[in-house]
Amino acid sequence: MSNNLKGKTAFIVALLVVFCYGIVGIPHSLGPAGLKQALTDRIKLGLDLKGGIHLVLQVHVAEAVGSTTDRDVQRIQADLEKAGIKGASVVKLDPAHPETIAISGVPPARASDARALFQGNDYSTYDLSTNPDGSEKLTMKPAAIRDLESHTLDQSIETIRDRVNALGVSETPVQRYGLGENEVLVELPGITDAAEVEDKIKSTSKLAIYAVVSGPYENDQAAMTALNNVVPPEDQLVHGNATPNAPDEVYLLERASQVEGTDFRDAQPSTDVNGRPNMRFTLTTEAGDRFYKYTSAHSKDSASPGSMAIVLGGRVKEVASINSAIRDQGEIEGTFTKAEVDALSLMLRTGALPASIEILETRTVGASLGEASIHEGVVAAIAGMLLVMAFMLIYYRGAGINADLALILNLVILLGFMGFFGATLTLPGIAGVILTIGMGVDSNVLIFERIREEINLGKTAAVAVQQGFAHAWITIVDTHVTTIVSAAILILFGSGPVKGFAVTLIFGLLANLFTAVFVSRVIFDAILANKERGAALSI
């Protein structure tokens, strides 16, 4: 055997050892139980094989548009005052169009200054127009709305993923769901309590602190009577019960929050001096400066003392007076249970959702069904592989051993790839493995038939092998590349099981390119090296 052939053989053996490590790592024991545990630690099982919960959520991205323009209303008002433009009114007149801000009452002498302000870089995401009555209107550009909605969806996905991982369920598939608008797919393998999961997901309700304008009122009718049946456009009515065991009440709050979920940098559960659960929080620098400005102006010792409402999930949980100015650290006290404080602090630590979510679908896959799927899939894969190997031995005789060895190595490399990359094996993924076995044999058939043709033309075995691989190589690469491209498209646009199928198919195709072309050629070269010149080849 030549040194070149020895080097290639050593490379194949080394590669086999590496990918065997990728499959099982270093098992704690070499018994069946130890190897099985090592295998499941390296290759994760998908929802359809392990059992678990499948959730489809919808993110109300339009809320992010409203929240952004609410904050911009405050910013515009502050910028006008800073520019010395007094008496202007900045409001959102139509709740059905949260992307529109109306500015009126600007003194005619300062109208050009106001327009210059609105046309500056700070408000480049808005289109400016003038109404017939001389007032101005800022409308968020469609491109800016799309970018904001897309960012909101992406941020929601990251937040939900962090929240689920923080609960001990690592590597959870959380991704866009292409079957609906602004929908998110969450799969939780190994989790069976759907109610608990829904509670944790729903605990991502938005937290915000608003300035209280008036209230509480007994009901909506009492509130509307006090307001002469007109809710100011810059305010909103919010229900809640700030007192333990109190009936539902109605508060009039400013529409724009002072701080909200994304402004919190950290939050930890704690207790007050009476032992009641509360939460200590830390704000971001920007939010801290903004909150300090508000609390300084409305503390109990200021000229216009006020109070704040803590709103969680769209309901008032507590109304507190402002004892002193707060910059970046404070405490939230109220009618919270310990479980609520723990969930709320976890939510804020892992990131608050930029918009509320709705659970559209919950589906549970039982563990027994997953075990049955594994058993049937493995049986199908083994049966298919044995039948293919038997066919290759019968039809191609000695060369069939070559194909069978390449097929076994193909499977080892495929599973090793999945172990190294932490890929998730799904039921369609097992189908991808079976398809890979078929495509691996297809490559061998192309090569072997070409070798047979060369032998029938009277060429020696060595020349026939060399010509067979040289002519079949282009065809094999062409078929594999086109299939890999198709599988890559499935990964980009598919989800869940479809993506699992595509991943295993790509890994299998890459492995097959190596085994069918390189490994099979090395085996043929080793066989020919041990034969006399001119001896026949069993094929």
What features would you highlight for this structure?
single chain, about 550 residues, alpha+beta, six-stranded antiparallel β-sheet, four-stranded antiparallel β-sheet, 15 helices, 19 strands, about 20% strand, elongated
Give a verbal description of the structure.
- The protein is of the alpha+beta class and 539 residues long.
- Helices cover 52% and strands 20% of the residues.
- The protein is built from 15 helices and 19 strands.
- The strands form five sheets. Strands 9, 10, 11, 12, 15 and 16 form a six-stranded antiparallel β-sheet that branches.
- A hairpin with an 8-residue loop joins strand 3 (89-91) and strand 4.
- Helix 1 crosses helix 12.
Please summarize what this structure is:
This protein is 52% helix and 20% strand.
List the topology elements:
Layout: H1 3-24, H2 32-42, E1 44-45, H3 47-50, E2 52-59, H4 62-82, E3 89-91, E4 100-104, H5 111-118, E5 126-130, E6 136-140, H6 142-166, E7 174-177, E8 183-189, H7 194-202, E9 207-217, H8 220-226, E10 235-240, E11 249-254, E12 259-260, E13 264-271, E14 277-283, H9 285-297, E15 307-312, E16 315-321, E17 329-332, H10 338-349, E18 357-365, H11 367-396, H12 398-421, E19 424-425, H13 427-456, H14 461-493, H15 497-529
Parallel strand pairs: 1-19
Antiparallel strand pairs: 2-8, 2-18, 3-4, 4-6, 5-6, 7-8, 9-11, 9-12, 9-15, 10-11, 13-14, 14-17, 15-16
Helix pairs in contact: 1-12, 1-15, 11-12, 11-13, 12-13, 12-15, 13-14, 13-15, 14-15
